[in-house]
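Obj.: predict assembly geometry.
Materials: sequence records (below).
Method: joint structure prediction, all chains together.
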Amino acid sequence: MTAPTTKGSIRQRLLILLLVNAAVVGLLLYLVVQSVARQIAQESQDNILAASAISILDSARVTGGEISIDLPYSALSMLDSVTDERAFYAIRLNDEFLSGYENLPRPGDYVGGNTVFQSAAYLGEDVRIASTRRSFATDQGQAFLEISVAQTLTGMNRTLTRISSISFGVGIGFFVLSALMAMLIARSTTRPLHRLTASVSRRGPSDLSPVAAPVPSEMAPLVSSLNNFMSRLQLSLSRSEDFIAEAAHRVRTPLAIVRTQAEITLRRVEKPENRQAVREMIRAIDESSRTAGQLLDHAMVSFRTDHLSNETVNLDVLAQETVERLQPLSELREVEVKVVRLDPAAIRGDSILLQSALLNLLDNALKYSSRDSSVEVSVEKDDTEIRIEISDTGPGFPDLDSGQLLERFARGANAEGVVGSGLGLTIVDEVVRAHGGTLTLSNKTGGGACVVLSFPLG
Amino acid sequence: MRSLIFSLGLMCLSTLSNAFEAEDHAVFGDEDAGQVLRIISTADIAFFKPMIQSYLSDHPDVAVDYTVASSSELMRALYEEDLSFDLAISSAMDLQTKLANDGLAQRHSSSQTQNLPDWAVWNEMVFAFTQEPAAFVISNKAFEGLPLPENRQQLINILRQNPEIFRGRVGTYDIRQSGSGYLFATQDARASDTYWRLTEVIGTLDPKLYCCTADMIDDVVSGELAIAYNVLASYAEQSAQSDAFTIILPSDFAIVMLRTVLIPTSSEKPELAAGFLDFVLSQTFPRGTSPLLQSTMLDDANQNALHRIRLGPGLLVYLDQFKNRSFIAEWESAILQD
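Observations (raw structure tokens):
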């Protein structure tokens, strides 16, 4: 059997897709958590800066047309409350610089309110600046008092580092969790496939019944195709067996007539060369008729093993009967059949099949035995099994290595010159297996073949 | 640029002369030593000498060039004139913070600085190495027969009840001249309203105003002053004639100033400076053997009444020209009642 060509694996593909998906989502999670947290951190820093700027603005008052500002201590000290931060501020009236750090970057436009934020570099460090303004009536008319407050980013950066590592952890954690889930999912998704494979490959060689175990709906078409295919196969197999049986049956009867006629003819023919030709004819006819008989037997065995009857069979009786039945043949070939031992042994099974198996074995033994030799038959029973052993003194099995002898129409290398179809051992094997037993072929040390049928008890 | 952003109230302190003025100058160690560490400091030579000598005994290859200047002159030297010093030591925490805040100090981190308490370090730039409370220094002779004031309220009462004793004999900082005096005054005012009442009472007594703690102590010792207010207790404790006066930490609250050191960006030998800085800190923390810090007074004081001035940008507030102008105006109107 050749291995099917494979391209990819559903499980691998599923796993890769799920892992890619997990990686993408993990990365997204990392980025989203980070950006949201950054935004929140930025907002809280902005809020503190705005509160500081507004508290300075609130301390401003106009006295005698002049602006005076009483800078609150907390306005700058609050910027330094958690981490050490450098702080800067600038107070401007319109474009006139009043106090603080004159070069502190000014905000651009005040868009959407009177407080704006910007990031800038100042005195060699990155700072965040909040600016707010309010209109005052001074002796030079309406003027905007603008307060800018800036802070370095030490605490902010510390927060961001922490956020970054937290969100990285969240991303990685998500990925790892998803990867584990992905493996479980991939495994559970392909499990029905494995189950189906197992159930199909567990079957016996001739079990072509439909798969009945429930499968997921996606696999239903596959299984129904499979069932359909098997039922067609079953049909075509049984048709061809029917055909073979029918053909064998139809051939056998005319062959019997032809053989009878040939024997009559043999008696009449006197010329030696003609007699020889007729003898060869009879021999060929024998071979054909035997093959037809075994084909019939085989068809019968196939049919009966599918519908095995379950009666008590006494193997000792059956062996005795079979030996007696072959008496004429053994006498003809001048081979003695000795029943060495007959333990009473009963099993449940099909007596016709079992007898057919014994017939085939004994027939083989007689065929391959030389004249004046003997064939031994024994039926033994012990605590665990029943053994039927048939041994001869013939040439033995030539190639025991493989189960090749049990294949249909295979014959041993030394079968030349012996009438046979190659179906005999196949039939025996099928029968024994149908009864849960095993067939063992071996060669005796002194020469000769030995066949053992063993049926476990219990 | 620095001179542009320099917009401090202290400008009005340093009148018109442009070059910074050193008050004193000394060189310790071998004049031919390989390296010279240039220190600018507000602390008197005598005050800091033990520390330098202790350092030099471990580092014979270093000479220390020590320049004494007032805190505002120190500020001017570094801020305006960009002079090169390796270390700046000052009791004016606000100005030191300003130097660091405005990017004129270098960051320094070492195993020594890692162990500092939070209040003693700001931004890895400004390091505190002393704690110096502001105290009343009272002439024992002048107070004969009078109860000793334990807090500001008691001091107010005594001053009010005995104007004949105290007229012309009360001394305090001229906050227009002294950075430390300004710092003490602003922190006093921040902590309690009593400060303004006390200032007004002192104002009615025709007080003497001083630039420096040492002068005040000298005048208490000589008997010229009956009491000096907001005197650095550390100086008073070290005075040779300490039996002539009594030092009192006010029990309501005592402002504790931290003398700080920083490495200016203008330093030409920052590593040498860092080494000296670590040495100073090691003498101080934890419970070092610094000859500057053997103040039993702080240990005995009620810890809850000690107001340690916090390093940080809050100190910049009183350097704002608006704030400075209005604070000094208020102070002047309280203390100068002619």
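Conclusions so far: The first strand of chain A starts at residue 60 and ends at 63.
To do: check interface contacts against the pulldown list.
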